[in-house]
Amino acid sequence: MVREKEVENKFQTLTKEIEPKPKILRNCFRAFFVGGLICDLGQLIMNFLSRYDLSSGDISNITSIIMIFLGGLLTGLGLYARLAQYAGAGTVVPITGFANAVVAPAIEFKKEGFVFGVAAKMFTIAGPVLVYGIGSSVIIGIIYYVVSLYG
Questions:
Q1: Residue 139: inside a domain
Q2: Higher confidence at residue 93 or residue 52?
């Protein structure tokens, strides 16, 4: 038992010595830059749509639909994963990251069928985001309602 702990400690020491150190500044810059570019693309789409006789709500909805479509398309083509490998968290935060989180598991489990593959696994990553997002919005709505009654 003592020998096993010695071997485990030696293994941990060796792995820490040869493990590459993360380049935090570079990773932060890439995430900021790529995330900003994704958001700039969304703003460009909004600016383009504002030329037409659309309400601001319609412009926002159409922009969201286009960005989700682009995220899903890039995921399907295998390009979003490569972009995410380069940019890290910069691809997770925008709406395209949510599209990627839904489409990637659906593609991965397609071979298991539409019910037990695509439908069952589609929200494995995005599911908790939806649950806590919807749950917290309900709680905030109730708080807002109560405060507005007595405020």
A1: yes
A2: 52
Phi then psi for residue 93, to 5 deg, are -70, -45
pTM: 0.69
Quick one: tokens of 16?
């820490």
Decide: 103 and 96 in contact? Cβ < 8 Å.
no
The answer as to whether 7 is a domain residue is no
Q: What is the domain range of residue 89? A: 23-150
Residue 13 has pLDDT above 90, yes or no: no
